[in-house]
Specification:
Elements lengths: L4 E6 L1 H18 L10 E7 L3 H8 L6 E3 L2 E4 L12 E3 L10 E9 L3 H11 L5 E10 L11 E6 L4 E2 L15 E4 L13
Parallel strand pairs: 2-3, 2-4, 2-6, 6-7, 7-8
Antiparallel strand pairs: 1-10, 4-5, 9-10
This protein binds inosinic acid (IMP) and magnesium ion.
Magnesium ion binds next to strand 6.
């Protein structure tokens, strides 16, 4: 375990097994057949979703397009999310597509809520949401998640893509930070 962590919450083996199982759930809902000939559009939220995405897609046999988006956080050392804003433009050509939004963690709900709203304006055939972690906390906005890796307690976690101040994304497991404030709606550099 990294010295800056208080505990490992989810080990690397557990992560790998769950991601594989999530891919099977996705395959059940989106058969990779002629009915889905246009393929799936995955919309991962950078930067936190990069590792989850990379592992997940290797278990998906579909014809897939990956269209990354960035959602801004607020500068400074705040650990409370004050909102979410899209950076840049949404991918074009979502009309009639099956879109699956991928994020590292559902916290306040503002990031996913914003993306669902914006993507729906593009008239996709369907929009679903897939998060690696879902924090048990009161949300600014309730967002339904179609695929959830793990429900976790209201603690600030890092690893497997998640950061604190830009660090620890590379850890292959999920751990709890030793120092920063625990709590809901924590903000990092996304
Ligand atoms: P929200 O659901 O809009 O509050 O935003 C979720 C985003 O906040 C995630 O995509 C993460 O980038 C970040 N975030 C929330 N909680 C944590 C955490 O415990 N550790 C690291 N990043 C977090
Ligand atoms: Mg994020």
């Amino acid at each position: 375990m990294h010295a800056d962590l208080a505990e490992v919450m989810i080990g690397a083996d557990q992560v790998a097994a769950r991601v594989r199982a999530m891919a099977m759930e996705i395959c059940r809902d989106y058969p990779a057949d002629a009915a889905h000939a246009k393929g799936l559009v995955l919309v991962p939220v950078l930067t936190g979703a990069f590792m989850f995405l990379a592992d997940l897609v290797r278990h998906l046999p579909h014809k897939i397009r990956i269209e990354v988006v960035t959602v801004s956080s607020y500068p400074g050392a705040s650990t409370v999310s004050k909102g979410a804003a899209l950076v840049g433009v949404l991918p074009k050509d979502l009309e009639g597509r099956d879109v699956l939004i991928i994020d590292d963690i559902l916290d306040s709900g503002q990031t996913l809520g914003l993306l669902v709203d914006e993507i729906l304006k593009r008239h996709p055939r369907s929009v679903r949401t897939c998060v690696f972690l879902r924090k048990q906390c009161s949300r600014v906005r309730e967002v339904a998640c179609d695929y959830v890796g793990f429900d976790i307690p209201d603690k600030f976690v890092v690893g497997y893509g998640l950061d604190y101040d830009g660090f620890y994304r590379n850890l292959p497991y999920v751990g709890v930070m030793r120092t920063p404030g625990d709590g809901c709606n924590a903000e990092s550099s996304r």
